[in-house]
Specification:
By secondary structure, the protein is α+β, with helices and mostly antiparallel strands. The chain has four domains: about 1-270, 3-Layer(aba) Sandwich (Rossmann fold); about 325-505, Alpha Horseshoe (Serine Threonine Protein Phosphatase 5, Tetratricopeptide repeat); about 515-605, Sandwich (Immunoglobulin-like), CATH 2.60.40; about 610-715, Immunoglobulin-like (Sandwich), CATH 2.60.40. Strand 6 and strand 7 (about 115) form a beta hairpin. Helix 14 packs across helix 15 (about 380-405) and helix 18 packs antiparallel against helix 20. The longest helix is centred in the middle third of the chain and has 27 residues, at about 380-405. The protein is elongated. The termini are far apart. This is Caspase family p20 domain-containing protein.
């Protein structure tokens, strides 16, 4: 059994620019192959196949055009020397050269780092690893730094050992970073062990040798096919794991039509018909778009191409397949574990069942095997994160996911990693994620949650606007069929859709204009000048006003008033202008409830309109004071004093005695903008009352405002 949990292949194929398969083949290709099997001792038991594996891979790489250096049963000094000599040759190679490093033997993790075990290593605990073994990241860095070309590193090193638990006997750890221009494929999922093989070679190495020379395949397609072979050969015990930071397509063996030698093309084992049948049988019932696409990549005009395209469409849309329903029926009934899983949904089913039964280590292994297939669904990651939070806490889960997402061209895993960040960092990264993947609808929903009242407790107007925009985009994706395919658990997806609908309905009552500009200005003219009050459709911590030619100035705070929810002082919402102020453009900014500066927002002050609007507002709010009655010297007097004081808003006053149809006009006099509330000493408006019959029961009044509106008829009891 093999102990290396994670590093199977680092195809750091960062060629500066691939102009085609033929140009890739023309680049100088160098390979270092190491096979260690002659171990002795209780901790590192002998392995029968690494030497055979090294020979097989060396021959395969030679057929692919590599100049190969082979080292067998090497101690630490020999391994380091071989790497040193190899990197020297790489440095002498031309730009754009391709490097391949293959290792077969024991490997382990210690202190979160991965190590390759030399022959003769004396390993008892973690401290020994640094001095007795070869660190994988040292090898990767050495190869990467040696040249400006591509690097392939194959590490079939996940065999089981009798090392103590502290030295990581159960497999390799996840890589914390992926070298630039790299492709990394592990022999099996992180934390798992890999088979040494009952025959001459390990299942993993056998699969690589069988698939690597297939003409025209990209390296990603090669290792998808390798994964399928290994899963089938091991009954699901071993699932190879890939990392990639490639920016261009890499092809080991070009098609003959693309300029590759026919001799290399013919080296692929088996006929095309046999290969097609084998690959189709492997992928046809997987339900995986990636796996079905790997068949179409290899055989675009194959015998099963039409059927494959149909199944690819079904896999991408989530239709035409009842296995998901069967899966959740299985979970609900707590049915049996799949003993020999080979398909992604079977590994996921096993992970869920083991989780339900409390077998968290087993569940963790099966989740990681499922993730090796690069499936696009989100909910398995959400469930796995729940397991990790229990075992590792949030910080530990985030550390694992940072390693998990390294070098994987897999937006779902990256999205899942981002979900574990703290709120501010999560919001920043989700925004960047949506810039890169605008159609990834689960990210729209997740980011909308971060702006919701449930998540924030207190929302600013900006929060509401962002939440509404994200929910609009999310619901559009739902309607277009671009959401449900991201979920195996359709009930979980339905709950998210219902939550989005509920929140969007609540936000629909908000005036969009208020979200665009939440600031409104109310002006009141006194004989001393203008008092301008700001009505802001948001919760504020401080308000700033900028007048033409000036700088923004705080309006200050209400003396002794404190916001009970925050304990902060309440900002004073008003400021003054002189009575002779003309038309003025005002800019208003404010700190919102989160302390973020919003604005500036523009508001206009027009004295004439403001005077009418301000006085009209007072009249409408204090309508009971329009009229007053007084009995004096045997007469009944009807006073219009209040209306005269606010005559700048009034075009005409009509009234009637004991009738609801006002038909008499009372002259309030002209408006004096410089002294708008003063009652004239003489002329129109100086007479503030009229005599009415003592028997009058009521008086009706209607105001005609200067802005063209009317107050409606109001009745006042004249008394007896």
């Amino acid at each position: 059994m093999r102990l290396l949990q994670g590093i199977a292949l680092i195809a750091c194929l960062g060629i500066a620019q691939m102009l085609g398969a033929a140009s890739a083949l023309a680049a100088e290709r160098l390979a270092l192959v190491i096979g260690n099997g002659g171990y002795s001792g209780a901790a590192m038991t002998p392995l029968k196949n690494p030497v055979n594996d090294a020979a097989l891979i060396a021959d395969t790489l030679r057929q692919a055009g590599f100049a190969v250096e082979t080292v067998l049963d090497a101690d630490l000094r020999t391994m380091k020397g071989a790497v040193r000599d190899f990197t020297r040759r790489l440095g002498e190679a031309g730009e754009g050269s391709i490097a391949a490093v293959y290792y077969s033997g024991h490997g382990f993790q210690a202190g979160g780092r991965n190590y390759l075990a030399p022959i003769g290593a004396d390993l008892q605990d973690e401290v020994d690893a640094e001095f007795e073994a070869l660190a994988v990241d040292w090898v990767l860095s050495a190869v990467e730094d040696a040249h400006k070309g591509a690097n392939i590193v194959i590490l079939d090193a996940c065999r089981n050992t009798a090392l103590s638990r502290s030295v990581g006997a159960g497999g390799l750890a996840l890589l914390n970073s992926t070298p630039r221009g790299s492709f990394i494929s592990f022999a099996t999922a992180p934390g798992s062990t890999a088979a040494d093989g009952a025959g001459l070679n390990s299942p993993y190495t056998s699969a690589i040798a069988a698939e690597l020379l297939t003409p025209g395949r990209s390296i990603e397609a090669v290792f998808k096919a390798v994964r399928l072979r290994v899963v089938e050969a091991t009954g699901g015990d071993q699932v190879p794991w890939d990392h990639s930071s490639l920016t261009s397509e890499i092809v080991f063996v070009p098609d003959a039509a693309a300029g590759g030698p026919a001799a290399i093309a013919s080296a692929a084992p088996g006929s095309d018909v046999q290969l097609e049948l084998q690959l189709w049988n492997d992928v046809k019932d997987s339900g995986s778009a990636d796996q079905i696409r790997s068949y179409l990549d290899r055989f675009p005009n194959g015998a099963f191409a039409t059927l494959a395209k149909t199944r690819l469409e079904e896999a991408e849309t989530g239709s035409g397949d009842d296995r998901i329903g069967q899966l959740f029926a299985q979970l609900a009934s707590r049915s049996l574990i799949v003993d020999t899983p080979t398909q992604p949904h079977e590994f996921y089913s096993n992970a869920r069942l083991k989780e339900i039964r409390g077998d968290y280590p087993g569940a963790r292994q099966d989740y990681l095997k499922y993730f090796a297939f690069g499936m696009p669904q989100v909910d398995p990651h959400l469930r796995f994160q729940s397991v990790l939070r229990v075992q590792e806490g949030r910080a530990g889960a985030l550390e694992i996911y940072r390693s998990l997402s390294q070098g994987r061209n897999d937006p779902t895993t990256l999205f899942a990693e981002i979900l574990l960040e703290e709120r501010d960092e999560r919001v920043r990264r989700l925004g960047a994620f949506l810039d890169a993947y605008p159609d990834f609808s689960p990210a729209l929903y997740a980011l909308s949650q971060d702006y919701s009242q449930t998540r924030l407790g207190q929302q600013s107007a900006t929060d509401k606007a962002r939440e509404r925009d994200l929910l609009d985009r999310f619901m559009a994706a739902v309607e277009d069929g671009r959401f449900l395919g991201y979920y195996l658990d359709q009930q979980m997806a339905a709950e998210q859709v219902e939550d989005a609908r509920t929140r969007l309905a609540a936000l629909s009552f908000i005036n969009p204009a208020a979200l665009a500009n939440p600031v409104r200005l109310n002006a009141m003219r006194s004989n001393q000048g203008w008092m301008l009050t700001l009505a802001i459709a948001d919760r504020t911590r401080e308000i700033f006003v900028k007048l033409p030619g000036g700088e923004p100035r705080s309006t200050g705070f209400v003396n002794g008033a404190v916001d009970p929810s925050t304990g902060a002082p309440i900002p004073y919402p008003a400021f003054e202008l002189p009575g002779n102020a003309g038309d003025t453009a005002i800019e208003v900014s404010y700190l919102d409830i989160h302390g973020e500066m919003q604005g500036p927002f523009s508001v206009s002050f027009t004295p004439g309109d403001a005077l009418v609007s301000g006085q009209k507002d007072i009249l409408e709010r204090l309508s009971t004071g329009w009229l007053a009655f007084r009995d004096w010297d045997g007469r009944k007097l009807l006073y219009f004093t209040h209306l005269i004081s606010y005559r700048c808003a009034i075009q005409e006053v009509r009234y009637a005695l004991d009738s609801d149809t006002p038909n008499q006009v009372f002259d309030t006099g002209p408006c004096d903008p410089d002294n708008p509330h003063a009652i004239p000493a003489s002329g129109p408006g100086s007479t503030v009352h009229v005599d009415i019959p003592a028997a009058t029961s009521f008086v009706s009044v209607e105001l005609f405002y200067r802005d063209g509106t009317r107050s409606g008829v109001k009745r006042f009891d004249a008394g007896q």
